[in-house]
Amino acid sequence: MIITRILRIVIGLAFALILVPAANAAGEGTAVGVKPDAVARISSSDRILEVGSDVSVGELIVTGGSGQVQIVFADGTRLVVGPDSSLLIETYLLSGPNTARKLAINALGGSFRFISGNSPKSAYSIETPTAAIAVRGTAFDLIVTRQQTLVMLYEGALQLCRNAGQCAQLAERCAVGYANSSGAAGLSMQDARRPQVIAGFGYSRLQRQLLPDFRISGAGRCQDVGTAESINSLGDSPDMSDDDGDAPSTPTAPNTPSTPSNPNTPSTPTAPGGPNSPTTP
User: Fold this and answer.
1) 3-state SS assignment for residue 223
2) How far is CA 216 from the centre of its chain?
3) Are 189 and 225 in contact, with CB atoms under 8 Å apart?
4) Confidence of residue 272 (pLDDT cuts 50, 70, 90)
């Protein structure tokens, strides 16, 4: 009897170990748009990504200078990994057929677009080397380097916190925020550095390289410099950002004031390379 019980326990544990990976597999993302020079890496083994490829939890998505991956998850979350970028999908747990209990990603470096899906706000967690982002039903672009994290918000709201704990709240269309070793804050519409910082967000004006579901209406208008009132008055205006032009030229770096009035002003951004973002100044 004792031996029989032990065998039943062992068999039960074996089935449990088999079923856990299967549950995670059901929550994988799918690469619906891929430009060559993009791989999924796990345990030092690279798998070339193609349209229709599954993207699994624990895989590191890595793109080269011409690479790009557009991923959709079961809960409707959409994610773009731009050129010269790397991103780890740490956790994706489903609580229902089209809802995630937790989606955690680590944007290690590069340029990204994130559009939240049907899951509750608390389900999303985004980490970078310098910041943590709490999503509030959001669409935004992200530029990540070892020195700092830059965010441009299009819809919804988010909280951007530097690793030391200081946070900035972004809740307006076209709001731009940063987090680095000096602090976390937003750049006002009148900030002299804003035009040069936002020039690095190439997806806002070059959206035709993205599938329709990954485009954001009116995103290109965020490149215009004006008052908060004029930006917010755009509402749901037609998308004018699908420019046929070439990739953006390298912008000059924003000038940090020699005697800043606020000690938490951002350092000069060193955005990642690639056609969708500026090279390091």
Assistant:
1) helix
2) 14
3) yes
4) very low
30: tokens are 């799918």
pTM: 0.74
Q: Can you give the pLDDT at residue 94?
A: 86
Strand partners, 253: none
What 3-state class would DSSP assign to 265? coil
Per the CB < 8 A criterion, the answer to whether 79 and 104 are in contact is no
Cα–Cα dist 99/227, whole Å = 37
CB 29 within 8 A of CB 237: no
- Find, among 38, 67, 34, 63, the residue nearest to 51 by Cα: 34
Label the pairing between strands 68-72 and 54-55: unpaired
Per-residue pLDDT of 155-170, as tens digits, reads 999 999 998 789 999 9
Q: Phi, psi at residue 153, to the nearest 5°? A: -95, 135
Identify how many contiguous H helices and E strands the chain contains and give both numbers.
3, 15
Residue 194 belongs to what H/E stretch? helix 194-198
Q: What pLDDT shows up at residue 97?
A: 80
Pairing mode, strands 99-115 and 124-127: parallel
Percent of residues in the chain assigned helix, strand, coil, to nearest 5: 15, 40, 45
